[in-house]
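TA notes, week 10

Several of you asked for a full example with nothing omitted. So below is the full record: structure tokens for the whole chain, then the designed sequence directly under it. When grading your own attempts, check the secondary structure regions first.
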């Protein structure tokens, strides 16, 4: 747990810098850039489907441990940026809404079943779904927002949601060593059920 905690702390610090640096970098460019960053930041944190998927990515990374703690969320953010670029460019990506809803189902099931996936497979899985999330962010960029500032915003929002998932896993693990795994899996199962509701149109 000591090694896992130290790696988690390092990853938390790195993502915190990532989350803060875009706002500092674009703060001097004027209202347009600030407006774009704020819109980008709020887009992932105000949608139930985005929040559930991204927090669950953090939980999944925590379950895997080791390098996955930073590699799995990083893969999601990186591929999501590519998807965002496609959306901003107006290119077509099919089945975006379905892909986002299915990401909640699949990632919730992965956590609920506590699948011990190889690191490359885990990164590929989250990256696949990140493309849909990123595209949705990009295609909904406001016309008066700058692409770079908006992209930095939704990447920062996503990173913070991954941190939330890691934090949930760490908290459960520390407060309930005996039943922490069961509680984490229960959270995954709940996310999966909500995801089914998103796919079916109930939510």
């Amino acid at each position: 747990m000591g090694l896992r905690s130290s790696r988690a702390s390092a990853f938390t610090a790195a993502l915190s810098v990532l989350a803060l640096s875009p706002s500092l970098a674009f703060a001097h460019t004027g209202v347009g850039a600030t407006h774009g960053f704020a819109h980008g930041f709020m887009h992932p944190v105000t949608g139930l489907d985005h929040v559930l998927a991204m927090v669950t990515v953090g939980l999944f990374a925590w379950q895997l441990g080791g390098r996955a703690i930073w590699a799995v969320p990083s893969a999601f953010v990186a591929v999501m940026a590519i998807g965002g670029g496609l959306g901003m460019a107006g290119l077509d990506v099919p089945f975006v809404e379905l892909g986002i809803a299915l990401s909640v189902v699949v990632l919730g099931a992965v956590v609920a079943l506590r699948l011990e996936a190889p690191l490359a497979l885990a990164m590929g899985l989250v990256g696949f779904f990140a493309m849909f999330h990123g595209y949705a962010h990009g295609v909904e960029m406001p016309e008066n927002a700058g692409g770079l500032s908006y992209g930095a915003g939704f990447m920062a929002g996503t990173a913070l949601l991954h941190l939330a998932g890691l934090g949930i896993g760490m908290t459960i693990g520390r407060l309930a060593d005996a039943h922490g795994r069961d509680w984490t899996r229960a959270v995954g199962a709940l996310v999966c059920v909500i995801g089914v509701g998103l796919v079916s149109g109930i939510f």
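The chain has eight helices and no strands. Use that as a sanity check on your answer.
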